[in-house]
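dumping the sequnces here before i forget
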Amino acid sequence: MKKVSRRDFLHLMGVGIGGVTAAQLISGCETDYPSPTINPEPSLTPLQPQPTSTPTPSPQSTNTQQPTPPEYPYLVVTHGEDPEQHIRQGIKALGGMERFMKSGADVIIKPNICVPYHSYEYAATTNPWIVGALVKVCLEAGAKRVRVMDFPFGGSAKDSYRKSGIEEQVNAAGGEMEIMTTLKYREYDIPNAVSLQKTSVYEEILKADLLIDVPIAKNHGLAILTLGLKNLMGTILDRGAIHNDFENRLVDLATLVRPHLTVIDAMRTLMANGPTGGNLSDVKIQNTVIFSHDTVTADSFATSLFGLLPQQLGYLVNAANRGLGRLDYQNVKIEEFNING
Amino acid sequence: MAKQSASTHLKTTNYLITLRKITQSLALIVFLALMIETAIDRAPHDLTNIPIRLSPLAMLASLISSRTFLSGMTISLILLLSSLLVGRAWCGWICPMGTVLDIFRFQKSKSGRKLPENFRAIKYGLLIVLLFSVIFSNLTLLVFDPLTILTRTMTLSILPVIDQVITAIEKTLINVPFLTGAIYQFDLWIRPAILPIEPAVFQYTILNGFFFIGIILLNLLAERFWCRYLCPLGALLGLVSRLSLVKRNVKDTCIQCHLCELHCPTGTINPQKKFTSDPAECTLCLNCLKDCQKNSLSFSPSLSLAPRSDYDPGRRTVLNAFLVSLSLTALLSIEWIKRYPRRHALRPPGADGEKLTSTCTRCGLCMKVCPTGALQVNLVESGIEAAGTPVFVPRLGFCQYSCNACGQICPVGAIPALELKEKQTKIIGKAYIDHDRCIAWSDHQTCIVCEEMCPLPNKAISLESGEFSSPTGDTMTISLPVVNREVCIGCGICENKCPVAGEAAIRVYTF
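..and the predicted 3d for all of it:
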């Protein structure tokens, strides 16, 4: 071993200490790091008559805000057995994927892949063919890349991606499964928050050109049902914080993370023992998929599949009251049909 | 002519020494790779636990102590038989611990202090005490097996520290605008490939680290101090090596120049005995061949028993060791823990405390493989006797419902190798709710995280409605979590995810 002289040792010490100090200085800057400006509203979301408590829309978004062109339905509901046809015909009815993205867009799909315990039949995780078909449709519309991700709570992402069958379908469709590492989370302030003032969100989800929220409709002890809004919890780091004052904090989060498109998988719905599941007897086959640009409306419709009313879900009511979307799915332009083939 | 032969000889020697160094490096790299591959969804567990199964000391000890034979243990015979052939070549050519000690060779002055030869007896004492103890089903001293030291230290100290360093560097560089993309890419690669997604956290990381650093620092006193004086595996191989076929021979042409003695890493070349060496100490590193100017040395087959050295264990040592192990075993088993196991005595799924303690090789591979970091090393919490064995600490990690890796990787079946379906029914403990801390029970606020997390198909935690009067006098209905202990398997995800700060409001206890 090379002999280290006292002088060399001191030099090394100096470099080391200097390095550590510099590192701390640089990382210290992080606190002052300005939150990246994000458009709090997807341009397509038509907000209903704006209550005062609406999250501050940035000036830019007020300009782009325009009513939905009347030719597009507000809500599309498809019935049938083939998941891919659900997506193809449902998206087509909604105006085609081109309505939501430009060619070259960077797309993130956020399914529910909460645990690696069971295969998709148990209805704890989103139907893999629904996710796969969405990847295909985006790529066909010219997406630059399509990433699929979730942050499971009961095991590793790798495990969960595989066990759910989603990895296989996404890879076959030409998409990428991304593992959400803690490095890519960044703390954001939530302006006009009622309860959750700030939270760490996976940065790229906020930066994506198109964010598609693809929950599976299922039973949940706290939320009663976990649907589109509840699925957004997978985008943040500290899920524990949401469970306190859940019905306000979830909506606070929903003002920050706003999917451009929500597709609720209700092919197989978990009616009890959710969100983890494990009994096939708790699974009800409904062969239904719900599409809307308005997560609140899509969620509201989904409650009917469980024999519930949207008003029974506190967070949905709060979300509607705060102008995030419409609870009265009966009054919107709805297109409901059986898929062919 | 003689000169030419001498130069050929030197060439061959240099070639052989280079070959040894390459072998050492490769063995170390393979060892590190196997450690990194010790994870779920990676290399087969029967492959990654080979380093431990290679140790005849760990295997023999576990075999005698647990009275359970597993066919996988036979791999260690390779190592034992190799010492009949080439002595302690394992130590000089392959053992990753030896290689690490070769890397940290501080010696500058070869002369000067020389430690007493009798120190070499320590390792034999340790070995014999260990071997007697295992008869009484005590495996505590296996913490000194070099292979278990390495796997344990990699798991508990080295890899977590590397992880923290990389995380710190990443977090720093990510703020440099033009590096952000590269750091993301690097992180995406390294996280699943080498490091766990979330950095593992272990108790006693520092203690273990100091133990390992201590072994390295002993190199300051003498080169390969550990191998010469302490290593019980080296002692076992040394005893067998006395019968070894290939031995170092000194010819009469030796001019007693002392060069070989100076460079012998184990210091076994003895000028008082005509520069011969003890086959039980020689690691066949071949350094002396290179030093010898007169070509007086050879490593050649010879059928003979090595002469006794003063430090070799005699009848008296054996008798003393027997008494020591007897009293040690007795002392270690007088633990109050036997009457009242602490709640921290939760064990990996399917493992029984007593059986685990008397079978476990203390290798720590289960702690490495556990995807949630739930398995932690026991120091004294479950008894000193069980030092180095795994305990299950739910607040640090939960037993993942879809994982049975710890039982699969265990080289000696101390954690039973259960099929996943069977593991999912094994009861580790039972969860109890602390009503004074629970957000729902105590603060009357909605929180059902434990119920949500419960992985059982029929949920061991259910929600009951409770009515409370709010400060304003209104009646409010709150969902209260209740544990159904008939169903609970003690996987601990409820305790792990409980949002209450500090100690959880729902905890798993031994049942």
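Chain A touches chain B through 43 residues (CB under 8 Å).
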